[in-house]
Amino acid sequence: MASRNQNRPPRSPSNKKGGGAEELQSDKRRRIIGTDKMERQGRGRAPFGAVNNKAEASDAGSVEGSECSTVDFTKEEVEALLNEKMKKGNPFDSKKKIEQMGDLIKRLKLCVRWFKRVEEGYIQEKEKLQSDLESAQKKCIDAENEMKMKMRELNEVISNLRMTISSLEERITKEERDKLEAIDCYRKEKDARSVAEQMQASLSTELEKVRVEKSAAEKKAISNEDLYKRSQEYNMSLQQYNSRLQSDLETTNEAHKRLETEKSTIVENLSNVRGHNKALQEQLSSLKASQDEATKQKDILANELKCLREELKQIRDDRDRQKGQVHSLTGELAKYKEYTGKSCAQLDTLTSKTNALEETCTSQREQMNMLQQQLIAEREKLKMADLSVSETRTVFEDQKRIINELQERLAEKECQIIEGENLRKKLHNTILELKGNIRVFCRVRPLLPDDGHGTDMVISYPTSTEGLGRGIELVQSGQKYPFQFDKVFNHEASQRDVFTEISQLVQSALDGYKVCIFAYGQTGSGKTYTMMGRPDAFELKGLIPRSLEQIFHISQSLKDQGWKYKMQASILEIYNETIRDLLSPNRSSDQARTENGVLGKQYTIKHDASGNTHVSDLNIVDVSSASEISSLLQQAAQSRSVGRTQMNEQSSRSHFVFTLRICGYNEKTEQQVQGVLNLIDLAGSERLSRSGATGDRLKETQAINKSLSSLSDVIFALAKKEEHVPFRNSKLTYLLQPCLGGDSKTLMFVNISPDPSSAGESLCSLRFAARVNACEIGIPRRQTSTRSFDSRLSYG
Q1: CB-hemisphere CA count at 13 Å for 32?
Q2: 795 bridge partner residues
Q3: Where are the chain's structural domains?
Q4: From CA 331, how far away is CA 252, in angstroms rounded?
Q5: Distance of CA 237 to CAs 69, 240, 260, Å?
Q6: Are 346 and 178 in contact (CB under 8 A)?
Q7: Helix or strand or coil: residue 86?
């Protein structure tokens, strides 16, 4: 435990004896070693001795400037600084000890500032790595989406090509079917030609019969001479008939010649059709890649053509033989002409179909060429897409590797941040221990219009380097009374200036320590304004709302490091030695029964083995934001007991106690902490004759003075290190027992009025604060637990 002798007020001559015993006992405490060891280490950065020389060379106005100079520390130097002890020397040389302790505190502040800079660098690098990681992930996602879109486009192109190929196959199948139909038509025509030849053969047989009959008739004419005349007449008729037959034969020959020319034309057209059919077969064979079948069909068609030519030659021979017999075939010739006309019509139809097939094949050939070109182009696109996909995969793998490296660096930086946070907490708590576990701040309120015009302040502040910002002087009856505390706020200090000085103490509650801050002073000295202020105005907020806002803000920022917090609040007041729950839903009915003499709900204070305080049947509310606590504070302020006295129009007639229990759990390190923040606004400490209270106000003042007297008895017993400390003499001291006599970090605000009429009360308050500043309690311990996060939240 660090000594607090330098914070004690000057003693009066009557207290020198007791003060000497206290000084002898304080000399046995821990000393802070000088900077010789650190100078002998010979590191490249500025040693602690150089930092000390800078701090000693600067005056009070340039202390902060020298401390803000860039100084680097290593882990070994920090450990050495934490384990540094005071040099052994003259135990009665308090000035040297104060200088050594001030030097150590300055170096610790430099170390803390260095750690803050390092922590800010880690945080910035972490944010940069996080942004790089997010951009890399975004690029990978964009590349994947682009690759998927390209794959979908290629699949659509491939499906379109497949549909086109299937339609071409259907067209080819249709062309083959039309070809087979043309072949069937040709076969039918051939069959018709054979039927015509059979009919011609039958006509030749009938002509032979006619010849036989003519010969028989000639024989009969020769044998019948008696019929000579008739035969001559008959012969003449026959000659006439023969001449007519000759003329008919000539016309028949001419018709036959015309028929021959038409037949030759038909044969030529048929040969042309067969040639086109052959070309069509060759084209279809090239499309289906069946050259063998096309060759066979070509041979068959050639043989058929040869047969047709032989048949045509035979027909010509038969025509020469049958020239003499054509006169009997006139009727049959008409039928043959009719049949030939039908054959020509069929041939014309076949020709038109062949031309249509040729046009269809040409268009299909062109379409196939276009489709082949499209297929080649799509294959090129597919190759390019494959190349782009491979490049995208390569880029994706590179980005994935970069992301893994960034994640590893991020994890490493998070580990460094956790180590730095632990080191910060250790340094922070070391500084607070060096400053003392019970610290005393003094705040002087400004003169008010009610204090009277033209009155001078009885408070002054020393301007010496030693007392600047820590000393205060009170003048009464021409005599000056000097005091020194850990910090003195003059009448011009703002609410923000006051809170800045205690913000590190509030941080200790989040780190797992018990913290108690209470305001002491006479009525009208500004206690409630210091603790509560005006919550509706930002600049006028007091310590309670500012502390809670800081706790919630820091707890939210620690979520990135894996911390989760659960907080519970309770508010009570001690009125006439009776505990009242200011958050009770039946607050008005309980207060009415108490005022009527009916025994209301009894609240019992209990302390467990861990130093935690529990009040039975007290309402404990789970809170998750500063706005929720603001509404609770407003509700409690409306329920608090106030009254009018000669000291103040609205005087607090009870002790106001706000308690915030903090449970934290780190999912990454599995670390668990439990902290408690007690913020207390005590009632006015003025004497009975000063307040002018009567009736109920008399009872209230007596109860307040009794509890505050018990508080002074406890402080004096702790200062004298007595075995028995009378905590149970009042509800207030028993409630504050873990804060005053345990392992809590405690801060007392003594509020002073500069009004000359309040000089006596102000002097009493300053003397009491000086005794508190000289008191020592145990070393604070961090509250940790191995229980689950939910089980730690079960308060009594």
Answers
A1: 22
A2: none
A3: 173-372
A4: 11
A5: 159, 5, 33
A6: no
A7: strand
HEC readout, 577-596: CEEEECCCCCHHHHHHHHHC
Rounded CA-CA distance 769/749 in Å is 8
- Strands 745-752 and 514-521 come out as parallel
The angle subtended at Cα 489 by Cα 484 and Cα 494, nearest 5°, is 170
Provide the 10 A C-beta neighbour count for residue 234: 14
Buried b / exposed e over 403-419, threshold 16 CB at 10 Å, is: beebeeebeebbebbbe
Please give the DSSP secondary-structure letter assigned to residue 746: E
How many CB atoms neighbour CB 587 within 10 A? Answer: 17
Stated as kind and residue range, the H or E segment containing 57 is: helix 48-57
Q: Is 535 exposed, middle or buried (0-12, 13-18, 19+ CB in 10 A)?
A: middle
**pLDDT score of 553 more than 60:** yes
Give 690 or 232, the one with higher predicted confidence.
Answer: 232
List the single range of 454-458, 657-661, 666-670 with lowest mean pLDDT.
454-458
Contact 501, 422 (CB under 8 A): no
Q: Report the C-alpha gap between 182 and 346 in whole angstroms.
A: 11
Contacts of 269 (CB under 8 A, 6+ apart): 347, 351
DSSP, collapsed to helix, strand or coil, labels residue 565 as strand
Half-sphere exposure of 167 (CA within 13 A, CB side): 10
What's the average model confidence in pLDDT over 623-640?
A: 86
pLDDT at position 427 is: 65
Element (H, E) at 567: strand 563-575
pTM over 0.85: no
User: Distance between CA atoms of 149 and 347, rounded to whole angstroms?
Assistant: 57
The closest of 64, 82, 63, 85 to 74, measured between CA atoms, is 82
pLDDT tens sequence across 138-156: 887 887 788 788 778 878 8
Computed on alpha carbons and rounded to an integer, the radius of gyration of the chain in Å comes to: 62
Return the amino acid letter for 304: E
Please check whether residue 547 is in contact with residue 495, taking contact to mean a CB–CB distance below 8 angstroms: no
Q: Is 437 within 8 Å of 471 (Cβ atoms)? A: no
Instruction: State the DSSP string of 217-277.
Output: HHHHHHH-GGGHHHHHHHHHHHHHHHHHHHHHHHHHHHHHHHHHHHHHHHHHHHHHHHHHH
Residues 6+ apart with CB under 8 A from 793: 566, 568, 663
Instruction: Specify the pairing of strand 605-607 against strand 613-615.
Output: antiparallel
The single-letter DSSP state of residue 326 is G
Other Cβ atoms less than 10 A from the Cβ of 140: the count is 19
Exposure pattern of 258-296 as b/e (b: 16+ CB <10 Å)? Answer: ebeeebeeeeeebeebbeebbebbebbbebeeeeeebee
Best CA proximity match to 359, nearest among 283, 269, 295 = 283
Distances from the Cα of 748 to the Cαs of 61, 309, 360, 434, 519, in angstroms? 27, 136, 107, 17, 6
Tens digit of pLDDT for each residue in 475-531? 888 888 999 998 999 989 999 999 998 888 888 888 888 888 989 998 888 998 999
Q: What are phi and psi of 680, to 5 degrees?
A: -125, 130
Nearest to 473 by CA among 763, 774, 712: 763
